[in-house]
Design brief:
Layout (H helix, E strand, L loop, with lengths): L1 E3 L1 H9 L3 E5 L3 H6 L5 E2 L17 E5 L4 H12 L6 E4 L2 H8 L8
Parallel strand pairs: 1-5, 2-3, 2-4, 4-5
């Protein structure tokens, strides 16, 4: 597992090199998101076939803790060889990239 900053994610999205997966619960995603793919953490292993394997996978949650836990699990299980975690999650994205996103 590797950490990646929100700014690096933004650049990777613009270059079409990254697929950001928001692993927060549905109500959290519906409340505020960055228009990326949503696969709740509990559903991730069952829906892993939905990932775009031509791009690097970046997991994102609220603060990065859940994403780190999931990244460790899927790396240990050999489900994805290279996975990144957005450092600081959506909170860091809001702080550094888009302050117009509001969490309720």
């Amino acid at each position: 597992m590797q950490l990646i900053s929100p700014k690096e994610c933004q650049i990777g999205i613009e270059k079409n090199e990254l697929e950001i997966i928001d692993i927060r619960e549905t109500y959290e995603f519906e409340n505020a998101n960055i228009s990326c793919k949503h696969i709740p953490m509990a559903d991730f292993t069952a829906r892993i076939s939905e990932l775009d394997r031509t791009k690097k996978t970046v997991l994102m949650c609220g603060s990065g803790k859940r994403a780190e836990a999931l990244a460790n699990l899927i790396t240990t299980e050999g489900l994805i060889n290279e996975v990144f975690v957005m450092n600081g999650g959506i909170l860091a994205w809001i702080e550094t990239i888009d302050s117009s996103i509001k969490l309720d």
